[in-house]
């Protein structure tokens, strides 16, 4: 392979580039003469080149196009109909407490507000369910109807564990009672509507819509604010907004049936759209008992107990002498005199690990078995460790 001489190459190019250039110009001109007129003829009116034209057919108007339909909006939907029917059954609750000074003793001072649901009308008496924490500490409770009518109500009873309370009031102004539903058949993702009075009575009868985000959630509850969970509430999770003041209001399904009592929300800056309601299926037995007796009576042992998990591990071995196979339980701190536990011979620092064969890992486990599975008067067998030795004892449950 040799090297080309530069003078030879230049001479070669000069003699050959003119003919191709002229040929290209001529061919380009022919193409333009043939194609361009056709483009102008077919596009001068903005139509597609594939659209057929006819001198005896007029261009269709936009209004007559079969693909364009007139917009019709029907605001009378199932949702708005349901809300209008249910809203009168959701009321505001004002917690009135006597003040500390002389002037406020005569008239109750508003200590808090919430919501409630009228669930029953019997003759001239109406019954309202709300949250325990809404009416806690109240000397007087006032119900505010959807039309701003104020009616004084009587607290029949309340229960801290389920966070439920029942009120009784004059029913002459009541014309709507909510229809009970069921929480057992709800599905994650189905619509949920919360009705209540967020931020107090200034925003009464507020409606928020969302979905069921979760079923059978368990939320730890610290009643005495000592940093330890005293109970685990089983709740429905929803992203329908539940703000302060919504507590005690109604969570309904798309048919307007009550499926839960709004109770709480996660109040953190980084969290949004996580609210909780008490399932109506678990609330109804409590509501009926409160209405009938004014309190919820539960079986009890008569001991002050604490979870082993609250103790350092070395205390398990050194103070309680527990064997390595014990991984959880509750230890007895005090025994009430003449209580069922006292009569059965339970002692301080006994460690309860089972009840009727069911394992107990902490205080919540023991309470759930007692409150949800046992009745007053039942005999239960406890498996305990005393000074490192395993033993069984039988206790007849009393009433609390």
TrEMBL record:
Protein keywords: Hydrolase, Membrane, Protease, Serine protease, Transmembrane, Transmembrane helix
An example Gene Ontology molecular-function term: serine-type endopeptidase activity
Disordered: region residues: 45-68
Keyword field contains Hydrolase: yes
Gene Ontology annotations of biological process type: proteolysis
Presence of keyword Amino-acid biosynthesis: no
Domain of life: Bacteria
Compositional bias (Polar residues): 49-68
Domain PDZ: 285-388
Spans traversing the lipid bilayer: 21-41
Assigned protein family: Belongs to the peptidase S1C family.
Name of the protein in its database record: Serine protease
Organism field: Oceanobacillus iheyensis (strain DSM 14371 / CIP 107618 / JCM 11309 / KCTC 3954 / HTE831)
Lineage: Bacteria, Bacillati, Bacillota, Bacilli, Bacillales
